[in-house]
Amino acid sequence: MSTPARPAPKKRKHLIDFDNPPVVSREAEARLTRVQQWVMSALLVTTALHLAAGLVVAAAAIDGHLDARVGLMVIAGLVGLLGMGIGLAIHQRSPLHPLLLLGLLPALAGIPWVF
């Protein structure tokens, strides 16, 4: 006598079914791309601005060497501008956008504190 055949187990919907991959619409891909752009630009810009602020703090910590202070402040401004420019490029905007000037904010805010 043969044993009765067991029914196939139900597929769990919360697991990935590699035999039937989900179909992704163009709208969903576009939304995902926008989210990825915003995350990458936010990470890059905040990292660059933190680095620029750290250079301002380093310039304030130097005693007596005016040329070193000025140099660090210039580098802080360039790092901020570069970070904002790359952040704009991630969003496929022109790097010569008015938001680019926000990159100078750490250096400009640090001028009264450093000098």
Automatic annotation (TrEMBL):
The chain crosses the membrane at residues 38-62, 68-89, 96-114. Keywords: Membrane, Transmembrane, Transmembrane helix. This is Uncharacterized protein. It comes from the Bacteria.
